[in-house]
Amino acid sequence: MVNITISRTFFSFLLIFAFNLHSEDQSDADSFFGREAPVYPSSDHLIGWIDSRQILTLNGEWSYIVDPMNNGLPETSFFGGFPKNKIQKTGMELIEYNFETASKIEIPGAWNALDERLFFYRGPVWLYKKFNYSPKKEALTHLYIEGSNFTTKIFLNGSIVGEFVGGYVPFNFNISKYLKEGENILLVQTDNTLNESSVPTQKTDWWPWGGIIGDVYVVETPKQFIQNAYLQLNPDNFSEALFKLEMNEESSGHMIKLEIPELQFKAEYKTNSLGAITETIKINPQLWSPLNPKLYEVKISSDAETISDKIGFRSIKTSGQKIYLNNYEIQFKGIAMHSEPIGIAGPAFSKAHFQKLLLTAKDLNINFIRAAHYPYTRHLAKVADQLGLMLWEEVPVYWNIDWDNSNTLNIAKNQITRLVQRDQNRASVVVWSVANETPLSSSRMKFLNALLAEIELDDSSRLSTAALLSGSEEQFRSLVLVLALQGAKSQWVSLKEKAIFRLILDQAKIPIESELSFSLSIDDPLGESVDLISYNEYFGWYYVTFFTEQMMISEGTLRKLMFEVMPDIKISSSFDKPIHISEFGAGAKYGNHTNKIWSEEYQAKLYKHQLEMLSNNPQIQGISPWVFKDFRAMLRPLPGIQDFYNRKGLIDEDGNKKEAFEVLADFYKNKWNK
Ligand code: GCB
């Protein structure tokens, strides 16, 4: 025992000694066994208008090394970690990694989509890129990453640049002081592990794609540069727009020129002492709409730079239970999506991916897309701007979140802020959503209200929402009675099941001659704080399953009865606001033709009943059925049917259309046409 202790101590002494000999940073001098994590700085304020900046793209081939034991960080490894990027010179150096000879992948891209061995992997993977650069004294250089899941640590030429926690959203770091003339080595650790206080948490019904899932750019700006700018129509006066701008520093007196050449608009403003401008400008634009997705070239210049973008002008509002685009009543004829391209494994990130997705989705005669459940890359909204599709954008505050944890709140705030700051000038974006199916509690109310307040800081011109869970236990008990009454009256129900239905009705003292229909009221108190009352419902799919054990009635009987009662179901809300049905759907495997569930026929039938039910409810002014395309989901293992896909898509992963596709396309074209 004593001997072992002594030899261990001796061993660690040797290690410390070895470190001290080879270390360059102070942090390496600490003992291996108790080494403190170095400080990883947080990212900077988001740089807006990224597509018109001076950039060097780092998209393309990168090397990667999987690190399941998380051994490559300076604070966890024996010899200073992967960032040291030690290179074999004489053949005598002990180095147990080599990025030069490691496997390669394309960035953007998720490593668990590109390497079969990593399909189910959740942990750290290192990404390595060499690039040539010539730093300019009079400029700042930033590293911009459009999205990286979910915790990202960045090292440049062996130095720590910083850390970004939370996936899907863009972030940037000033890397000027780490750059070298000539060859530079960028090393990024991406870790797709989720835990109970991350956003989202461990359990999601979508794939936790890991790695850098958006563009990577080296961005050059002047020392004093335009950080971001906002230009949006005044919803109450269409010949005015609000212009806000901020510099990276609080420096006054910068002359800023704003130009919209096609509108012959030109004006100059001076930044105030905060380095900011807030002005109302007079313009008279053609309004952006799905029928006329008009965009204007907008240029902003300081004496050191010019940035530009294409911007559409429109208003979106609600009044009572109706939605208005440019003061015309409109219904959201939508579809929900995940960010996965057609026919390609992994996350969607490029303009081409979104063009194909949105153009195919347009065959449904939609005017609206719910981009669930997290921010996609900026290309989505840019393509939607051009194609005239309205968008709902969302952050991954999904199911159970660690509501009382202030770090969790900060991650979610950061996500919503960055999403808003990036897409604030996109005409297509008409809805910001802060959550999906979050169970009621007072801490959840506080958390979600804080996110709504965060949006208001940057943009109050769009509708806010959250996809709610609703319906009390009492309401759902009454659905059991409605089904029992229908069952007791129906000719085709077996005598045995009829007897059970009668018993249920007797116990509830409901005479068999009565007329009952089911009413659901969406009364989640968050309805007070949002503009759009959004609700996910699964009549004809999950809800039946919940009752079958309770009622001792076969699922087949209940499904048939549910279809019979659905047209009369009433959905309303105590809030005098429009309702958006943010989800409904059923799983179907493309090519599976039976009269059972998982068939295209069952899914199509469910759509017919759902659409009849929803159009019978006047407060419903928008829908986005679940879901456009089959998507990867770890929760869905059923062999032969799901094989780790959620099969509620109207097309399969390769783009093949299921029968329900036409049902929805026809409904939007011929029946629901405002
Ligand atoms: C939901 C969730 C969505 C799931 C869907 C399903 O209610 O919001 O993320 O994928 O149901 O297919 O069960």
Could you describe the 3D structure shown?
- The protein is α/β, with parallel strands linked by helices and 674 residues long.
- Helix content is 24%, strand content 28%.
- The chain is built from 12 helices and 34 strands.
- The strands form 9 sheets. It has an 8-stranded parallel beta barrel.
- Helix 11 links the parallel strand 31 (579-583) and strand 32 (620-623).
- Residues 1-31 have low confidence and may be disordered.
Explain briefly what this protein structure is.
The protein is of the alpha/beta class. It starts with a helix and ends with a helix.
Q: What is the CATH class designation of the largest domain?
A: Alpha Beta
Secondary structural class: alpha/beta
- Runs in which pLDDT lies below 50 for 5 or more consecutive residues are 1-31
CATH superfamily of the largest domain: Glycosidases
Radius of gyration: 28 Å
CATH architecture of the largest domain: Alpha-Beta Barrel
The major pleated sheet works out as: 8 strands, parallel, barrel
Number of domains: 3
> Which molecules are bound besides the chains?
(2S,3S,4S,5R)-3,4,5-trihydroxy-6-oxo-oxane-2-carboxylic acid
Strand proportion, as a percent range, falls in: 25-35%
Count of DSSP helices? 12
Mean pLDDT: 94
CATH topology of the largest domain: TIM Barrel
**Secondary structure: number of strands:** 34
